[in-house]
Design brief:
This protein is 25% helix and 19% strand. With 244 residues, the chain is α+β, with helices and mostly antiparallel strands. An eight-stranded antiparallel beta barrel has the order 1-2-7-5-6-4-3-8. β3 and β4 form a beta hairpin. It starts with a helix and ends in a 13-residue tail after the last strand. The N terminus is likely disordered.
């Protein structure tokens, strides 16, 4: 009798187990649950259209430049020159600074850059002027400032001061940031060509605009370049107490 009871119990257990197993099988008549896809990284804005690069910059941020001489980190304070800071922020985040030459380097004074290596891109930015900012900071060593050809003519050209060029303050050059890492890299940027044509033996800005990097790499092969640039993520942008 015990054997019969055990067999019955075992049969009952097997039936229950099989029923549960059947319940766990996927139902072919029901649509499969959607699997969440990972968030796609935001695409960089299009730097070929200046009209689209108008986002307001954060109050403070850092930008990293990877150059042929090493890494340079610039900290920007928007309140110093809001229009300049906004333009710089949009240029950096869009990827504009790729294979961009330091085309005018005058030791003891400053190094200038910002004309795009593709003449078609340069043409789009040539008249994309921003309004002047009142000069609130000073053009001391390591500060970054937009170049200008007169009132309200700033576009994409910038320079970093090698020395304390405070005489520029009264000429409307408004700094918006400062090198906080890699000033030794800035100091090492090749200045063998000096002042640009026609006043010097260096590249002529008009010819750069028309012929781009093809002209620079042919006639001035030893220039240094910005290989890439990007905004430093906020969580990584900690204060730097090792400024040089």
């Amino acid at each position: 009798m015990k054997t019969i009871h055990l067999l019955c119990a075992f049969s009952l257990f097997a039936a229950v187990f099989a029923a549960k197993a059947e319940d766990t099988k996927p139902d072919a008549t029901k649509p499969a649950a959607a699997t969440p896809e990972p968030a796609k990284p935001m695409a960089a804005p299009d730097f070929t259209d200046p009209g689209k690069l108008t986002e307001k910059a954060p109050d403070t941020f850092k930008a990293q430049f990877n150059t042929t001489k090493g890494k340079i980190v610039i900290e920007v304070t928007r309140s110093l020159a809001p229009n300049g800071a906004d333009r710089f922020y949009n240029l950096v985040r869009s990827g504009y600074f790729k294979d961009i030459a330091f085309f005018r380097v005058i030791p003891g004074f400053m190094c200038q850059f910002g004309i795009h290596g593709d003449p078609a891109i340069s043409a789009k930015w040539r008249e994309a002027n921003i309004a002047d900012d009142p000069v609130k900071g000073s053009n001391t060593r390591g500060t970054i400032t937009f170049a200008t050809a007169g009132p309200n003519t700033r576009t994409t050209q910038l320079f970093i001061n090698f020395g304390n060029n405070v005489n520029l303050d009264g000429m409307g050059f408004s700094p918006f940031g400062k090198v906080v890492e890699g000033m030794n890299v800035v100091d090492s940027i090749n200045g063998e060509y000096g002042e640009g044509a026609p006043g010097g033996m260096g590249p002529g800005q008009g010819q750069i605009q028309m012929e781009g990097n093809a002209y620079l790499k042919k006639d001035f092969p030893n220039l240094d370049y910005i290989k890439s640039a990007g905004i430093v993520p906020a969580e990584s942008a900690k204060p730097d107490d090792t400024r040089k």
